[in-house]
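Late entry, evening session. Most of the bench is empty. Finally got around to the prediction I had been postponing all week. Sequence below, unchanged from the version circulated by S.P.
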Amino acid sequence: MFGLAWDSGNNISGGAGTGWVGEVDNFSLLPLASTVTDEVYKVLNPQGTWLLGTKKKAGLYESNGTTWQFLGVELSKATTGEITAGTETAVRRHSPADIVSYIDQHGLYDYVVTANDWADLVQALESGSYQTVFIPNGTYTCTDNEASPLVVHANVTKIDGQSMDSVIINANCSVNTSITTVTRFSSYKTICSNIQIQNIANSSYGFWGETSSLTSDSKNKTQLINCRVYGISFPAVGFRNINGINCEAENPSSVGSVGAGKGFWICNNLIGCHTTYISWGFSASEGMTNCSAAKFTEGFQGNNIDGCHAKGGTTAFSACTNLSYNNTIANVTNNYVSCSFNSTYKDNTDNTKELTHDYSNISTGTEREVTWQDKDGTVALLDVENAGSLQSSNIATRGFDRLNPDTMGEVSAVASTQTFSHSVKSGESLFRFWAGGKYYEKTTTQSVTFTNTTGTYYFYYDTDGVLQSTPNSSMTEAIFLVSAMCGIVYYNKEEGTVWIGKDEKHGIIMTPADHFLTHMTLKFRNSQGGNITGLTDGGSTYTNIGVGVYHDEDIVNVAMLSTAHKFMYRDGANGGWKLHSNTADNKIALMNGANAVWNEWTGTTWQLTDCASSTDYVIGYVLKTNLDGEAGLVKLIGHNAYPNRGQAREALFENIDTLYLEGLSSSECQFQFAYIYKRDGTLEDDGNGETYIDLRNYQSSGSSISSVSHNTLTGLNTGDYQHLTASELSALQAQASVYAYLNSSSSVTCTTSGTYYPIAGTFTNDFVNFIFDTDHIEYTGTVTQKFEIDWHASLSAESNGTTVQVTVAKNGTNQTAQRMGVYCKTAGETFTVSGTIVLELAEDDEVQLVVSSDDAGGDITFAHFTTTIARFLR
């Protein structure tokens, strides 16, 4: 047997028998580390100061061939007899590896068991002489054929094995047939970790903990951490009467798919424990959290079970009470038998009536119907068409019940105080919504302020049911996935005006992922109708814009037939959007006396400028938004003017890309039509007899073409080859987009601080005129144009206080001026960062997502990453 003893540390000469090869007075006198690799020297006296960072301790140092590593103070390894006799001056020394293992990893113990020595293990744990015992790696084969060969004395408070995989107590029950309990604890205050017991059989127990006499099912049970019982024959039990963390009961697969023996019996507070090929995984136990059972006859039986998983067996949960809804099941015959859950349903019309869940007959396949609504929001049953039967589409995580619009409340905004409010609809007692999987009811008006800055703002309820606001530029995927969106406004600080969204209360029927995808891709768009009539070449008016149906993701927006509309334009140095003060009309151009106007950026301000000889032709637009009132359908005054109709006609379709739409959300509006007007306010056709371009689906529309030209030939749009107009061809050539997302978590090692490295991982990509090439994407379109690259990431850093920067590299050049950064205060904590970059790309240009960190050598782990590339619409 060996114990641990301190050497006196006096000036003992180095050399044989001391554990080091030499001694020096202080650290500066050590030889070059490169000349004495793996040698240990003793430094007798400390040197330097902490203040100047030059402090070097006295003690043992080992050379790794490059530097000297401090091993700590001297530690000796002596027999118990040597320590008792006081003759430990000539003792055997620990190697440096021993010192690191026993001091740095485990601390000091009253006793260290001799490796592979069963008798020494029994003496250490049963004698009562030691409180803390360390068991090094080894196999300890039981040689005592008795009922309890290892009874841990009540004085022992801590038992630590070196590692669970390598500290093995072999019960050898095939020989020791009298064993009933391999390891029996005498005190519930004992904490035991990193020990594995193998080969138990008959009616024996692997670990049997001691329970406080106060109550048999209390929390006062022996604590086991990272312990395992492997090889459990029927009717043996792995663990009894213990509290366990990350403990395992396992059998080899050869025992069969329903397992053998019992894993955990009459145990409490089991966290992260696991059974494999065990017939009865967790029996008569209480308080199981994040545990799992695989290959069993019965996975779980007990009380208070949360976040557990059962896979591949006969019955997952049997006779369980107070089950949470966080448990999961896969590939079992019976899910729940005679179980009850920790929730009740209340009748919608009578809150005194409750329905307690009883899933005792689910395994028999009996159909169950529940017509109550769960008030805590865990499950919402709203499908009136199916008479309340539970459907997957009924289970929602965030949003409003759009099947019952009276329950969604009403919104309003006040420009003078920058306040957005959500109130109960007149005649109703409340409004309700779901956020983060929770159900909320509000009986009073909820209000929040937004910043006094011109722009678009979104409003939503967070996972705590609190109303929040965010500018459009700060809207992230993380907000979309868990929040209940309820409103949008456009605010003009200089004008003191606010336009509120007609309806932004998105519903629970659409999944969060679908909502985010459609918001970023399909956006707000025309579904049908909304045609413009009455435009004629040389005319100055239109007749009307018909009834139109528009979709804002899951929200249907209907615009009735209208004959007059306001002009919208940008004004002032900040370019705030405003409606012209003129009364709404059916004119195609805004006139200033005899001249039409266009919306000019002078370099310092936005203004309305009269058309002149060099700006004789302007392209106007009809724009549909999801804003309420006169801002919902407007005539947008063009931002470019042309000296002749040829240039105007050439730019008619492409001009949409040169508009500056800052401040408006591109996801909340859609261009409908484009047309050319002249300085005198009359319409100019497109040269093909068409009076306007239909932008609702990016294809031409209008009157038929009648001229003696190639366009009058028949049969051009049959067979394999199709005829395209010039504008259609230009539109087709200009189409290009990317939507990509990271499939699984991926890490990037930032070897050098401040250097950008490609973001690794496997992405799912949806490309139009882009291809993936090795570690970047390449633009294959033939039209040189500007693109908006949007990205959203959730990431974590390896070290505290790390600043992470994310940007895009174009043809190997990092766009650092457009980077976005996040400060990761805590290592391992997830932070979010988003960014937008505008780049001009020509054919074969390459773009790549890159990241840098100020933590040299540290890893940056991306949990999620989504990015879109779309043509930049200004």
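Two things to note before I forget:
The mean pLDDT is 82.
Residues 384 and 594 are 60 Å apart (CA to CA).
Will write this up properly tomorrow.
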